[in-house]
Amino acid sequence: MTELLPKIAVRPEGVLELVSKIRKSSHDLSKVESRVRRVIADVRKRGDRALVDYTRKFDGVTLSKKDLTVRKREISGATRRVEKKLLSAMKFSLRRLQSAQGGLLKRLDYSQVSGGFTMRLISRPLSSLGCYIPGGRAAYASSVLMTAGLARVAGVKRIVLCTPPDAEGQVNPAILAAASLCGVDEVFRVGGAQAIAAMAYGTETVGTVDKIVGPGGIHVAVAKQLVSCDVPIDFFAGPTELVVAADESSNPRSVAWDLVGQSEHGQDSICGLVTWSDSLADEVRGEIERIVPGVQRREYVEGCLKKGFAAVCVDRRRAADLINALSPEHLQLMMANPEGFAGLIENAGLILNGEYSPCAASDYCVGTDHVIPTEGFARFRGGLSALDFVKTIWMVEGSRKGLRRIIPALKTLAYAEGLPNHSLSVESRFKR
């Protein structure tokens, strides 16, 4: 078996070089962007015909234009086609998510009275939303909950879902059941960059949306980035990433299993260990060698871990520097005093503290969202939340006394900017 999770001794001056090497090992974005641009342009030009052609080309499925739309009775009936145990699990996950995120929305009801002015922050839901749900190697019903489920909590009026069909031209029943639970309005058998283009610019069948969210492969993530100049998106959410930061107090078997678990998404994923304990790195690698031969989806696990890493740093501070430079999607802290180490972290999409906060738990049932920035975009923001489905508006109400009080400063600023009528419009209220 090819070496899994290669060990790397990290020199402090070599951090940026290592980060570049890790990111380049997953995919070449420049080549992907060129291909995706052509797909988007074609969908804008030919509409449904392009969607049908790309579904045949990329998914190996021949559909007619009318087949692009999943019928409403098929969506509503899906809850009866999945196992009750699965349906119950989806409801459990959705309740946890909605409870946590609904509580966040309530905190937006904010007001302040200052100097005769009452300022209130109000929120309004987006009118429409497009959710992309990956297909292919797995059926991501949980991603429906994490996108459409949140949109429903926020009160989005129209929710559209695009997902690629299977080999028989069908949408996985679990995805449809989740769509039914979340109150999705429209589902289309369309995947890949072409689905993003359809939701952004519209075709004869797929209507445009006000925002596009959801995870996907590298082509989907790049497509979202390219259309973002015309339609808002959540962020770059491509193949998954997990970095486990651990020390000699960690359970090497737990570390190994968490890396194996996330690596089954495929070789485009990034999974690695960051530590300052050379012996722990060896123990984790040994556990991986013992675990991998017997796992399901072994080819995906091996493909990812062959490009993974066990980075051994000189100390905790240098380990934090490496993590901040990499800005991973998921950061799992399995060490003594994880809270203290978390204080050193500036860039991570989601931080999971301790032995009993594994990445897989946050993927499904904790209440946080599993749509999180990848490719280093965690430098700028964290994961999806209910706030991504609303817009906030300030509402201001002034009193006569309050307005009169600000006239001197307002007049000075307006005249300094060469806009005297701004000041005169305010002063006119106090002149007969």
Architecture blueprint of SSEs:
Blueprint: E1 7-9, H1 15-24, H2 29-46, H3 48-59, H4 72-77, H5 84-106, E2 110-114, E3 117-125, E4 128-132, H6 141-154, E5 158-163, H7 173-181, E6 186-189, H8 192-201, E7 212-213, H9 218-227, E8 241-246, H10 252-263, E9 270-275, H11 278-291, H12 298-305, E10 309-312, H13 316-326, E11 330-334, H14 338-342, E12 350-353, H15 359-364, E13 390-398, H16 400-416, H17 420-427
Helix pairs in contact: 1-13, 2-3, 2-8, 2-9, 3-8, 5-6, 5-7, 6-7, 8-9, 10-11, 10-12, 16-17
| Strand residue percentage | 15-25%
Biggest sheet, spatial arrangement of strands: 1-10-9-8-11-12
- Please give the largest β-sheet: 6 strands, parallel
- What's the CATH topology name of the largest domain? Rossmann fold
Low-confidence stretches: none
Overall mean pLDDT: 95
Straight-line distance between termini: 90 Å
Q: Based on DSSP secondary structure assignment, what is the total number of beta strands?
A: 13
Q: Please give the count of helices.
A: 17
The domain tally reads: 3
Q: In CATH, what is the homologous superfamily of the largest domain?
A: Nitrogenase molybdenum iron protein domain
